[in-house]
Write a structure and sequence with these properties.
By secondary structure, this protein is mostly helical. It is globular. The model has no long low-confidence stretch (mean pLDDT 74).
Length: 79
Amino acid sequence: MRLKSMLTSAAVLAVVAGGLVPLATAARAESEAEMLGLHQLCDRGDRKACVRFGMILGRMQERHSEWRRRHPEWFWWER
């Protein structure tokens, strides 16, 4: 499971190193990739992933509107 996160991070870093994506955009892509991975693990019953997902979600409130638009399943309790 962690291998997928590591591969995603490596891919994002390779794109950044190549100069194809600005650093801020790459950081957002990596953050979103991590969130997707944690959400999938949480759906499969990994409690640690659920806690980590919730902590990141709560910490990055400035991106909630963007995430609500792109990933409404992350905010299932608001339906």
